[in-house]
Every structure is written in structure tokens, then in C-alpha cells.
Amino acid sequence: MTKTSYPPIHRVAISTGGGDAPGLNAVIRAVVLSALKRGWEVYGIRDGFNGLLLPEQYPEGGVIRLTRETVRGITHLGGTILGTSNRNSPLHYPIHLPDGTIEEVDRSDELVRAFRLHHIDALITIGGDGSLAIANVLAQKGLRLVAVPKTIDNDLNKTDVTFGFDTAVGFAVESIDRLHSTAASHGRVMVVEVMGRYAGWIALHSGVAGSADVILIPEIPYDINKVVEKVHQRDEQGSHFTIVVVAEGAKPIGGEVSVLEKQSGRAERLGGIGEKVAAEITAISGKETRVVVLGHLLRGGTPTAFDRLIALRFGAAAVRALEDGQAGVMIALEPPNVKYVPISEALGKMKTVPLDSDIVYTARDLGVIFGD
Ligand code: F6P
């Protein structure tokens, strides 16, 4: 961890990168109020780093002044008032060539210079794994920065939890609750696909809390015959409906994750596994099946009180970290406290569901099957 005596901060900037997550605005508000309290000026970069890399696209300014007024009443709002982007990474910036191909270039030096041109002394960058990788490079190139972790997927290493996850799980549970009555009324199998990328946190937590019968997660490859066995078993016991929660990154034993799209310079888009699982259940069991893909609904809406509190704590802690002379660190939750960890330690390893976690054991004790 780098703790150095830096010159005093006059101007601090904030950026939000990657997919949005409920709680981003709460972080922004906490950063702005905590920084203003220290007499610092605060600036927001538009749409990830696009405000600095593509200034011509922002006639009103790619870097905007943030005041007490601009962050009033935003703690409970989903999304981010700064905008975000999960394309145009400065490390793999896509250039569209005349022959239709795409070349990726590294624009990180240019980005560091742009911060200097705007006389920004330090950056608080809020983002997921992609944004943390960018932050790590910018920090190595001398930009004084602190990262705040964000993702609804809860798959970031070195922090107990990220804001957005609780809101996503809450919405998924409400959706599963609603699906129970219609599934029971029609005697159908209801397949609910949830986000989470290559980790099964959202599926596991919402599936257990929402009383699903089957939960399919990336960490436990499934056998569709085991899923159908469960459907039949429930029928024999007089429960003519089954609720299957499937993580978008789930895959069959010996099979691959279901990819919707591969895009240059961006993470592959996952999706489609819900439809596959449903089609196989119908083909093998003959049961009528319906699919609900919760998708981006999980990213919207007002953050829960839990997520707001995490977000506000992370934002205020990021300002304290800078004041404390920290740089190249990420704020992390280690209950009951927040702490700083080197960004490099959080990178490169995804936090997936441990198979020996008590929530997995709890699910199995309750009769939930994972298809293994
Ligand atoms: O990482 C958050 C997340 O919502 C994932 O759960 C999902 O796979 C991905 O982002 C979707 O990204 P996009 O908004 O680009 O479709």
C-alpha cells in the first residue's frame, strides 16, 4: 500500500465506469460532501473517462463542477448522474479503421495528461473489475487515485460485499415471489434467469430467499436430468409447479456458458441459458415451461438502505483515504469496518461462491437442488 506525503489537494475528480449499480449516486454524494468539507473543489467526469478522452462529444463540458446543489436529493436514485460506459477502455481503446476492422490502442498516457491539463490533483474512480484494471495502470503512471468497488454481481475480490448486490437480490426475490402464484395456478415450471456474470451470488441468494426449488450457478455445473428428476419428484408429492433460478453464467456439466455476443474490447455478453434450460425441461418432461429474464431490471431502481449505507461509507472513506496520503488503493468492506487494500491485490481473481459456504449447505438442507 502506498502512503506518501503528497502536496495538498485542491481539485478532486470522480468517475463512474462499467455497468451501473444502485448506490453509485450515493457514493458521488458522499464524495462531494466530504471533499467540500475539506475545502476541495470537486469535478465529475462524464461517462466513465469519455469526458476526458472524447471532449468534442461534450459541448457543455466533459468535466463538470460538482457542488452541494448538484448532489442534493440523489442518494436514493438508481443509475449515476455522471453517466457511465463499459466500452472505450483507455487501455484497449477501439479505433475503427476504414477497412471495417477495429484496432485497439492504449490511451492511458493521454488520459493521465488530460487529468494534469485540468489541474486535477486526485481521482476517486468507482467501478468494477474492468475499471479497477484501468485504475491500477493509471496509478502506476503516477495518477494519485483511490478506487471504490462497484458491481451488482458481488464478484469482486477483497471486499466482503459491493453496493448494488443487495438491491439486485431484493428485486429478484420479489420477482420470484410473484412467479410462485402464477406457476402454482398453471402447474408450470418457471425458469428465472438472473445476472451475475461468472459468479452465482445473485442466483444463490435470491433463490434461497425466494424459496426456489432448483438453483443453477456457474460454480456447480448441472445435469439437466437431475433438474427434471426434481420436477417429477415435486409432481409426485402434489406440487405441480417448480421454480428454477438460473444464473446467466450457469453451464451444463462438460458444456460452455451461453454467450449472446462477443465484442471487441469488451467483456462477452452472457445470456440465453434460461431459454436453453426451459426448452430441455419441456423436451424431457413434457411440462409446460415459461422463462423470465430479469436482466437489467436488477440494475435499476432505488438502492436498498443497506446498499445506500455501504455506498455512503465507501465514498466518505475514499476521501479520508486521499487525505490520509493513500494512493493506488481500493476501499473494501471487512465487517464491521471499511479498510484500504492495494488495487493490485483485488485484481485478477474473481470472488465466486465457495461450494462449502453455509448458504449452499442451507439450500441443500431445504431440499433445493443444484443439478449436481
Ligand atoms: O457486471 C454487471 C452486469 O450487469 C452483469 O451481471 C451482466 O452480465 C453485465 O453487466 C451486462 O452488461 P451490459 O449492461 O453491457 O449488457
Secondary-structure blueprint:
Layout lengths: L1 E2 L7 E6 L7 H14 L3 E5 L4 H4 L9 E4 L26 E4 L5 E4 L2 H10 L4 E6 L1 H12 L4 E5 L15 H22 L2 E6 L6 H9 L4 E3 L7 H13 L5 E6 L11 E3 L7 E2 L2 H13 L3 E5 L11 H19 L2 E2 L1 E6 L2 E6 H4 L11 H8 L7
Parallel strand pairs: 2-3, 2-7, 7-8, 8-16, 9-11, 9-14, 10-11
Antiparallel strand pairs: 1-15, 3-4, 5-6, 12-13, 16-17
Helix pairs in contact: 1-9, 5-6, 7-8
Model description:
The protein is 34% helix and 20% strand. A hairpin with a 2-residue loop joins strand 16 (329-334) and strand 17 (337-342). The strands form five sheets. The chain has a seven-stranded mixed β-sheet, with helices on both faces. Strands 10-11-9-14 form a four-stranded parallel β-sheet, with helices on both faces. It has a two-stranded antiparallel ribbon with strand order 1-15. It has helices at residues 24-37, 50-53, 108-117, 129-140, 165-186, 201-209, 224-236, 273-285, 305-323, 343-346, 358-365; strands at 2-3, 11-16, 41-45, 63-66, 93-96, 102-105, 122-127, 145-149, 189-194, 214-216, 242-247, 259-261, 269-270, 289-293, 326-327, 329-334, 337-342. The two termini are 42 Å apart. It has two domains: 2-163 and 303-335, Rossmann fold (3-Layer(aba) Sandwich); 166-300 and 354-365, Rossmann fold (3-Layer(aba) Sandwich). Residues 19, 86, 128, 151-153, 195-197, 248, 269-270, 299 line the site of 6-O-phosphono-beta-D-fructofuranose.
